[in-house]
Automatic annotation (TrEMBL):
Assigned protein family: Belongs to the peroxidase family.
Cofactor annotation: Ca(2+); heme b
Coiled coil stretches, renumbered: none
Binding sites annotated in the UniProt record for Ca(2+): 48, 51, 53, 55, 57, 66
Stated name of the protein: peroxidase
Organism: Ilex paraguariensis (yerba mate)
Recorded superkingdom: Eukaryota
Length: 175
C-alpha cells in the first residue's frame, strides 16, 4: 500500500455498500466466460503492489506507463477492472478507487478458483504517477535467485514470500 494511506475493512460501508458484491459479480461474469482471467487479476495486483504499493498505478493508460512496460504487456484482466469501475461509477459515482477495485478483484479471483477468502481492507487512494521504468524492480523470469532475493528484501519481504509469490512461475538459476 502506498505510504500515508490507512485502510480498513468496511471503508465503503456508508458511501458504497454494494462495492464488494458489484466487484464480485463482475469478476465472476468474466471468469465464467474466460477462467484465465483469475490468475491474470492476481498477477496484475502483485505487479501493482510490488511497484508502488497497491495504488492502482498499473491501470493508468499511456505510452510510457507501468501498464505499457515490458513486464506488464501480457497481463490479463484490465477489461474486468474497467467493467467493475464502470458499474461502480453508475452505483456510486466518484467513490471507489481503482486500487481498491483491483484488490477486491484479485481476492475474488482466488475465491473463484476454490482458493481461500479473506477480508480486504479498503480505502486506498489511486496513484497518479505511473512510469514504465518503475517496473524494472519487478521479478523477472530471467533473474537469478540472488537477484530475486534482493528485489524482495528491498520491499521488506523474505525468501518464503518469494517462493510463495513467484516460486512456481520461475525457473531459478544460480547466476
Amino acid at each position: 500500500m502506498a505510504l500515508g494511506q490507512s485502510t480498513r475493512v468496511g471503508f465503503y460501508l456508508r458511501t458504497c455498500p454494494r462495492v464488494e458484491s458489484i466487484v464480485h459479480a463482475t469478476v465472476k461474469k468474466h471468469f465464467q466466460s474466460n477462467p484465465t482471467v483469475a490468475p491474470g487479476l492476481l498477477r496484475m495486483h502483485f505487479h501493482d503492489c510490488f511497484v508502488h504499493g497497491c495504488d492502482g498505478s498499473i491501470l493508468i493508460d499511456g505510452s510510457s506507463t507501468e501498464k505499457s512496460a515490458g513486464p506488464n504487456l501480457l497481463l490479463r484482466g484490465f477489461d474486468v477492472i474497467d467493467d467493475a469501475k464502470s458499474q461502480l461509477e453508475n452505483a456510486c459515482p466518484g467513490v471507489v478507487s481503482c486500487a481498491d477495485i483491483l484488490a477486491l478483484a484479485a481476492r475474488d479471483a482466488v475465491v473463484l478458483t476454490n482458493g481461500p477468502t479473506w477480508l480486504v481492507p479498503t480505502g486506498r487512494r489511486d496513484g497518479r504517477v505511473s512510469s514504465a521504468s518503475d517496473t524494472d524492480n519487478l521479478p523477472a523470469f530471467t533473474d537469478s535467485i540472488d537477484v530475486q532475493k534482493q528485489k524482495f528484501a528491498a520491499k521488506g519481504l523474505n525468501t518464503q514470500d518469494l517462493v510463495t509469490l513467484v516460486g512456481k512461475h520461475h525457473n531459478f538459476t544460480s547466476k
